[in-house]
Specification:
about 500 residues; globular; about 45% helix; alpha/beta; Ferritin
């Protein structure tokens, strides 16, 4: 029996494929080409194996083979297969050949793949360089991927492909540093959010700033049957495409992922009104500048955002400052939350205490009893930014009037890394069980009454509620004096020795 393709082999080849581009173009750009190629190779190899199975089963009967193949997840014509592209690796315009193959793949699968590759151009001179360089890079890319065997019988566990895709997205996020790493949610932070919102079968799950979809996938995986409806929206075209592929590679074929600006153009609507979801999660860009520019129309010179400009009335509690979109996302999410809905959102700490319009919005949210918990996270969890973040958890139809504060930022609540800190399984469990038990734990958590929050002027800064101050041991002055004497005696000895050596050397 042939050896299976392992997770580490797939990851290794993907990482080697990155070497083809490394140093020539930025990783935030070339990741798209590698991830698209992984997707093509996977659906090609799967299709090829099915074709062989059906050919054997139906003894070469073309009609029956064709009918059986038409029921597969994806239809892959000969000129869209990886093998066909590999045979064209020395073509004078190999980039154009790949583009044509992707176009044909979209045409053959209009319901699933329409426009999914439109933002990724394998023949782009501005991105991949002039024809000779471009051809050399793409030829090497095809050669790297030809080493991978991704037929289902070879990989056995379908998760391998999804995991590899995830592995690459994470590696690229750490690579990208400041240029976008902060928008990627590290897997253990995603896991924490997913466990806090507790999705159930048949829930509608939504992420209004879904990026490449990793956070949504974590939430789906909390439901053993995975019988949930998945919705997302993403503003960046390439990232939207990666998200769609990520969903397919994780076996989520019916996710509804829209492309557009969620704040000025929310695309998940029921009869023109915002759709409602039982579970909402997000890691929106921190303090997004010019968040309202999609409302500006043509007069963006003197544009000032007003609540009346939003047909959905999401900013009636207050219009966030022009340079900080945090509460614009929070309000959008609260307006999209169904009765009994739960939501968790990652935000910078400033949302807890900044004043002016943000203070007014915060007051409104607390007065309406929507805030359930505030969780402070350790610093440096996100790629490329040291700023500590927090999670705000909201619930509709809350019966209790308190708010739980958790300070999980202290030493011992995470694993220290060289460039980046990590949440471990035990750190997540501690946060989740404290949240579920809704309890005060010395130096870790505190259940604050709404009266206390009002006395604090609706300021939610965590140290106001969770005191993590450690008393220092009193200093024993006698001990200190004794130590100083010992040190002085040692210095006198050393000086005596030195004088002896200097004398010997005649200095």
């Amino acid at each position: 029996m042939d050896a299976k393709t392992t997770q580490s082999q797939v990851n290794q080849i993907l990482w080697e494929a990155s070497d083809t581009f490394r140093g020539k173009i930025d990783s935030s750009i070339y990741k798209d080409y590698i991830l698209v190629m992984l997707f093509i190779k996977y659906i090609s190899d799967t299709y090829k194996e099915r074709l062989e199975e059906y050919a054997k089963r139906y003894e070469g009967n073309e009609e029956r083979i064709k009918r059986a193949l038409s029921r597969e997840r994806f239809i892959v014509s000969e000129q869209s297969t990886f093998d066909y592209l590999y045979s064209k690796r020395n073509a004078p315009e190999v980039g154009a050949e790949i583009n044509k193959a992707l176009e044909k793949l979209e045409e053959d699968n209009p319901a699933k793949l329409r426009n999914i590759f439109r933002n990724i151009d394998f023949n782009s001179e501005s991105v991949l360089g002039q024809t000779k360089d471009r051809n050399a890079m793409l030829r090497t890319l095809l050669e790297d991927f030809s080493k991978l065997d991704l037929r289902p019988s070879k990989i056995g566990n379908e998760d391998i492909i999804g995991n590899s895709y995830q592995f690459m997205i994470e590696r690229f996020a750490s690579d990208a540093g400041k240029k976008g790493g902060e928008f990627f949610t590290p897997s253990m932070v995603s896991e924490l959010l997913a466990r806090l919102v507790k999705p159930k079968e048949n829930d509608r799950i939504y992420d209004p700033a879904c990026g490449s979809g990793s956070l949504l996938i974590r939430v789906v995986n909390q439901v053993p049957s995975r019988k949930v409806a998945v919705y997302g929206q993403e503003r960046n075209g390439q990232t939207h495409s990666l998200c769609m592929m990520n969903m397919f590679l994780h076996g989520i074929d019916d996710a509804k992922i829209e492309w557009g600006d969620t704040l000025s153009n929310p695309l998940h609507l029921d009869d023109g009104k915002l759709m409602k979801f039982q579970v909402i999660v997000a890691n929106p860009p921190f303090s997004l500048d010019k968040w309202a520019m999609g409302f500006a129309g043509d007069n963006d010179d003197k544009f000032k955002m007003e609540a009346s400009l939003d047909p959905h009335g999401r900013f009636d509690w207050g219009v966030p400052p022009a340079s900080k979109g945090d509460y614009a996302f929070v309000q959008h999410m609260l307006y999209s939350l169904a009765e009994e809905g739960r939501m968790a959102v990652i935000l910078p700490h400033g949302v807890l205490f900044r004043g002016a319009s943000e203070g007014r919005i915060r007051k409104q949210i607390i007065d309406m009893n929507l805030l359930d918990a505030v969780i402070g996270l350790p610093e440096a969890l996100f790629y490329g930014t040291g700023i500590p973040a927090c999670i705000m958890v909201f619930r509709k139809n809350r019966t209790r009037k308190d708010v739980l504060f958790i300070d999980a930022s202290g030493e011992g609540n995470y694993e220290k890394g060289k460039n980046q800190n990590k949440l471990r399984e035990e750190d997540i469990e501690k946060i989740v069980s404290t949240y579920e038990n809704y309890e005060t734990i010395d130096k870790y958590s505190y259940v604050a009454s709404v009266e206390e929050i009002k006395e604090n002027d609706y300021n939610l800064n965590i140290p106001r509620y969770v005191d993590t101050f450690e008393e220092e041991e009193p200093v024993d002055m006698e001990e200190v004096a004794k130590n100083i004497e010992i040190i002085k005696e040692e210095i006198r000895k050393v000086e005596k020795e030195m004088a002896k050596y200097l004398e010997e050397l005649g200095l």
